[in-house]
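[Meeting: bench + compute handoff]

Bench side (C.D.) handed over the final construct sequence. Compute side (W.E.) agreed to return the predicted structure before the next meeting so the bench team could plan truncations. Sequence as handed over:
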Amino acid sequence: MEIASEHFVCPIARWAHETPDAPAFYQDEACLSYLDFEKRVRQWLALLAADGVGSGTRVGVLAANSLSFAAVVFALQRLEAVLVPLNTRLAESAWESQLKAADVSLLLFDEKHQAFAGSWEGRARFLEAELPPLEISREEVGGDPLPQLREDSLASILFTSGSTGTGKGVLLHVANHFYSALGSNRNTQLGSGDIWLESLPMYHVGGLEILYRTSISGAAARVIDTFGIGKIKQTLEETPATHLSLVPTMLEELIESSDSQAYLSKVKVIMLGGAPPSGPLLEKVIAEKLPVLTSFGMTETTSHITFMGKDDPIEKVRTAGRPLAHVELRILNESFEELPAGSVGEIALAGPTIFKQYLNPKQFPKPQHGKWFLTGDLGLIDTEGYLSVVGRKDDMFISGGENIYSGEIENVARQYPQVRRCAVIPIDDRKWGKRPILFVQIAAEETFSSDTLQAFLLERLGKIKTPDAIIPLEVFPETGIGKTDYQALLTLYEKRAA
């Protein structure tokens, strides 16, 4: 796609001009071509404009994935309005706080959230309401000028994941979304005829960005309304997809399915993110030569910021890939000096995919040094430029005078053959100050031994870093897409200790 100095072209309108019959979106039995979807976007344009939505208006969406949700994303962008998608997994108090914090003036909702919308004090509109009639021919669409989008126009406010509370609102502009999609598409070689399974919720930056990747490349998105391995299997069984976005536990379930070859036979790319994968899972990926591309990113970087390429050696799946095009990455020490390859330090980023500020910059100032956004994540870059993430700066605690990083213990525990998922929390200790506790989700539970795992960790970490206790869990609490809720684990431990 050609990039002007100050504007982008709306990709839906572009392909409605150039390839009007190419598929744009699927959901259940429906298939909308780019021409069909352009008409739907125009219907939402008319409806939203009649509701007083214009430049700068902030519109909340509380709904599961749907074709209507997707159309609203592009309609708001053309109006230079601001999308504020709400995490459907949060409590009503969190929705109220986020709507207020973002100064939302119109809420779009689906049937499941009708009760909340009815109790909300602002204006609300049913997302699946009948759209205004629109009679427009393919010739008229082809003859209209392409809508221009300003790079610096605020496109969305996405709240970082959290189990309770408002969270931090991340302001993302048109340029953030477009450059992220362009860089990602270069790695995945996404193009016309490809279908990306839109399994991630659109309130999440990863799900929202799939809409941009497919529309910018002229590919299609297959929308499903539930983020779960059961629905993904069912969808892949009925209709193939070329590109998937999965978290590690979902990929493991998919691989272990007796009919996994049927699911994966036509898949070109499996984007893996959300949480660090276990060592055994990565070994399966390498052994079976699966088209898995690992990544690293966050809401503030408009989804992934490093990503493997399709042509990278399969062994690099143990890393988080290399920086996308347009992105600069450095590893800095505490004096903000660049560290050489192989040294662990803070991951610092710069480029057009990085957000400008949080919703409330006085309460949440952007962590930066000069042009560099300081992620708070620790990592290292190998001699070939691939990033490995080793933990968070703020997960360090002191035990017996020693600095211990939870992420270091987790990285070693993930190498144990039966550990599918793990998390470390520090707990208060009268003698040592803090001590690590390890939670694990395991495979082959009947043969698992905590003592054997503890010996495995002791050999590799030493006594001071080896967890005092190992607690198996069937299900890990989550704050978002595959992200562990550490506060919930601490509460669980405190209840068990009591």
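W.E. noted at the follow-up: The first helix runs from residue 11 to 18. C.D. will use this when planning the next construct.
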